[in-house]
Write a structure and sequence with these properties.
- This protein has 192 residues and is an all-alpha fold.
- It has a domain of 114 residues: Serine Threonine Protein Phosphatase 5, Tetratricopeptide repeat (Alpha Horseshoe), CATH 1.25.40.10.
- The chain is 58% helix and 2% strand.
- It has 7 helices and 2 strands; from the N terminus they run H-E-E-H-H-H-H-H-H.
- A two-stranded antiparallel sheet has the order 1-2.
- Strand 1 and strand 2 form a beta hairpin.
- Helix 3 packs antiparallel against helix 4, helix 4 packs antiparallel against helix 5 and helix 6 runs antiparallel to helix 7.
């Protein structure tokens, strides 16, 4: 069977007319699927999710912070008030002397004065580890991360605290994930 050009031209016009009848406004796509985010059974690289069939979590990627921004490295650099700095130092001394309960009291007082200071929440998380209150240690470290606003110096320490808390609770997989997150952040902080 041989096709000649005159026979193909009407077929092309017919096909073009059918496609034009199905078209929507420019830039819009017509779909019968419900609106909302697409859900994939297989996590896309770099988005986090769950590995199908294993239940293992894939953490979302570490977002590279703009290190040109000056983040405070310590509570002294954070602009904390003198009362908070004094309480923080007393807490450090108590913790070093093996009195985490006294350190917790001092840090709770500091937290009441500056409830949005991530360094205080981080120190409280460390104290909770000393007191073997691992769930609270992780909770406080997560709260510190929330308040850190991308400060990699704080987040690095918090992920290490979370890894330790998870390990102490017997969650080895979760501990490895948290430690990997801390290591990723540490690589961003170290000069090449």
């Amino acid at each position: 069977m041989s096709f000649t050009l005159p026979r193909l031209i009407p077929a092309a016009f017919l096909l073009g007319g059918l496609l034009a009848g199905c078209a929507t406004e420019q830039g819009q796509i017509e779909t019968s699927a419900p609106a909302g985010p697409a859900i994939s059974a297989t996590p896309q690289p770099g988005t986090g999710g769950v590995i199908p069939g294993t239940g293992a979590l894939i953490p979302p990627p570490v977002v590279t912070p703009p290190l040109s921004q000056k983040y405070p490295h310590t509570i002294q650099d954070s602009g904390a008030g003198p009362a908070v700095l004094s309480l923080y130092r007393k807490a450090q001394d108590a913790r070093a002397a093996g009195h985490p309960d006294q350190a917790e009291e001092q840090l709770e007082r500091a937290r009441r004065i500056e409830p949005r200071n991530p360094f205080i929440w981080q120190a409280l998380a460390g104290t909770k580890l000393d007191l073997k209150q691992y769930d609270q240690a992780e909770e406080f470290a997560n709260r510190s991360n929330d308040l850190a606003r991308g400060n990699p110096w704080i987040e690095n320490g918090n992920w290490r605290l979370i890894a330790t808390a998870r390990q102490q609770r017997g969650d080895s997989g979760g501990a490895v994930q948290a430690q990997n997150r801390a290591d990723d952040i540490a690589r961003l902080l170290s000069p090449e």
